[in-house]
Specification:
Elements (H helix, E strand, L loop, with lengths): L16 H9 L4 E5 L4 E3 L7 E7 L1 E7 L5 E8 L3 E2 L14 E4 L3 E7 H9 L2 H26 L3 H13 L5 E3 L4 H8 L3 H13 L3 E4 L2 E4 L2 H7 L3
Antiparallel strand pairs: 1-8, 2-7, 3-6, 3-8, 4-5, 4-7, 9-11, 10-11
Helix pairs in contact: 4-7, 5-6
């Protein structure tokens, strides 16, 4: 097994390749491969292993009562899946996990992973940091879902990614990805983007975003 790609894994942050090899080689693990579109885990399925994406990408998605699919998060290598729920009192996947591309997942059973965490203080600290970051991500996601209008979601998103006092930035997602992220139709999102531009609030050229009227954009988030 080639361990070099694990250098980028958040759980191994601050460790060199020799240290990673020493820890992982003494830990039982399994590598599983999935085709694009495969349902890997279903909502409500027990989380009984630490799961790391070692190639490709997967996504967490949920379906509401109307049948609309909402993408919660896309996880690319070398991210982890369901780590925040592994030691929770209700240890189940809250969403479906589907392969976005052909993917390989490394899994470590819960009891073995517990020993793995105890093997090095850095690994334990990194794991706790991963859980904290995941909580922050879900908090931000809930904020977006609380906005009733697409315009409100976009205004909040643009202000957040640009940061205080920054007027120009690079969009981290395409409009298609944003539509999935907000759980709306791509044409609906494109229409609202055009509205914000025609109102002189933002300027978008490809993946380049320029905020022209920050205060007016902030007012939309309060409607």
């Amino acid at each position: 097994m080639d361990y070099s790609y694990l250098l980028k894994a958040p759980v191994f942050r601050g460790m060199d390749i020799a240290e990673i090899m020493s820890v992982i080689s003494s830990t039982p693990y399994v590598i599983k491969r999935y085709r694009t579109g495969t349902m890997i885990f279903q909502s409500g399925e027990p989380v009984n292993s630490f799961v790391m994406v070692i190639s490709g990408s997967v996504k967490g998605e949920m379906t509401d009562y109307s049948g609309r699919v909402l993408k919660i998060e896309e996880v690319r290598e070398p991210g982890s899946v369901g780590a925040a729920f592994l030691f929770s009192s209700r240890s189940v996947f809250p969403v479906n996990v589907v392969a976005v591309t052909d993917a390989e997942l490394l899994t470590i059973k819960k009891n073995d992973f517990l020993k793995f965490l105890k093997s090095d203080d850095r690994i334990l600290q990194n794991f706790l940091g991963m859980i904290s970051n995941n909580s922050l991500f879900l908090t931000e996601k809930i904020k977006f879902l609380n906005f009733k209008t697409i315009k409100g979601k976009l205004a909040q998103y643009f202000l957040q990614i640009s940061g205080p006092g920054v007027s120009a930035t690079q969009l981290p997602m395409t409009q298609t990805d944003m539509a999935d992220y907000f759980g709306v139709a791509r044409p609906s999102l494109a229409r609202v983007v055009s509205e914000l531009e025609s109102e002189g609030l933002v300027e978008i050229r490809g993946r380049y975003l320029r905020i022209l009227e920050r205060e007016k954009l902030a007012l939309i988030t309060r409607e």
